[in-house]
Write a structure and sequence with these properties.
It is a single chain. This protein has 8 helices and 8 strands, in the order H-E-H-E-H-E-H-E-H-E-H-E-H-E-H-E. The protein has an 8-stranded parallel sheet. Helix 5 links the parallel strand 4 and strand 5. The longest helix is centred in the first third of the chain and has 21 residues. The protein is globular, with a radius of gyration of 18 Å. The protein binds pyridoxal-5'-phosphate (PLP). The site of pyridoxal-5'-phosphate has 12 residues, from strand 8.
Length: 238
């Protein structure tokens, strides 16, 4: 998967952006309604910088340590960091100052930790609630049933601003199933939104990865987290 050729990464970024624009077009959405979060977790700092140089402003990492290391040694154009993987509470304090958005909040306890860090650092924390839609027990995330109570309690967290939901499609699911899962996340969001306390907006839907981001966009994603296809080699003969 590794690529040393900056041209290849730039080509891959351009191709993915083209597909995002086409998926927006098909579903009657504007291209600027969808943000590409380029996931650099497979590659080193230099190749992550190549992503930024190829025009990716939003970068995702799934491991806190990797995010800290890259951000601390960054020499590329300015970027916004997204934490997309599981965040342990004891890593919240160190991680939050780097991040524009934490996609993967999966407990009330973590929300309370984010609030404490926000208070201590005097900063606002932007987050999404991760929902486990595939029912895959190995995955992190809140169940649909746990969400209403948590959303009800959000106004108590003055520093934490939850802006929507994040979900992963089932890895092995067929396209129709993935589409149904994404549609279900969107519907769940619509229902939760309709009943959310004043001041709580759930406009963002972070869903879709390399294998399914176009489907996710058609089903309402506002953030897609795309990694592996940004680093792939072109097919022989092309
Ligand atoms: C790795 C990862 C992605 C990107 O996956 P690809 O299939 O490589 O595009 C997206 N979201 C999360 C949470 C990840 O861990």
């Amino acid at each position: 998967m590794a690529s040393d050729d900056p041209g290849r990464i730039a080509e891959n970024v351009a191709r993915v952006k083209g597909r995002i624009a086409a998926a927006c077009d098909r579903s009657g959405r504007r291209a600027d309604e969808v943000t590409l979060v380029a996931v650099g977790k497979y590659v080193d700092l230099q190749q992550t910088i190549q992503l930024a140089e190829a025009g990716c402003v939003d970068l995702g990492e799934s491991r806190p340590q990797q995010l800290w290391d890259k951000a601390d040694h960054w020499t590329g154009p300015p970027v916004k960091w997204h934490m997309i993987g599981h965040l342990q509470r004891n890593k919240a304090r160190r991680t939050i100052p780097y991040c524009s958005l934490i996609h993967s909040v999966d407990s009330w306890r973590l929300l309370k930790s984010l609030q404490q860090v926000g208070d201590a650092e005097e900063m606002e924390v932007h987050a999404l609630l991760e929902v486990n839609i595939s029912g895959d027990a190995s995955k992190h995330g809140l169940t649909a049933g746990e969400l209403p109570e948590i959303i009800e309690r959000l106004p108590a967290l003055s520093r934490v601003h939850v802006g929507g939901l994040m979900a992963m499609g089932g890895r092995t699911a067929a396209e129709v199933e993935v589409r149904a899962q994404f549609a279900a996340v969107r519907q769940l969001r619509d229902e939760l939104s309709a009943n959310a306390p004043e001041g709580v907006s759930l406009a963002e839907l972070s869903m879709g990865m390399s294998g399914d981001y176009e489907i996710a966009i058609e089903e309402g994603a506002t953030l897609v987290r795309v990694g592996s296809v940004l680093f792939e080699e072109s097919e022989p003969g092309l």
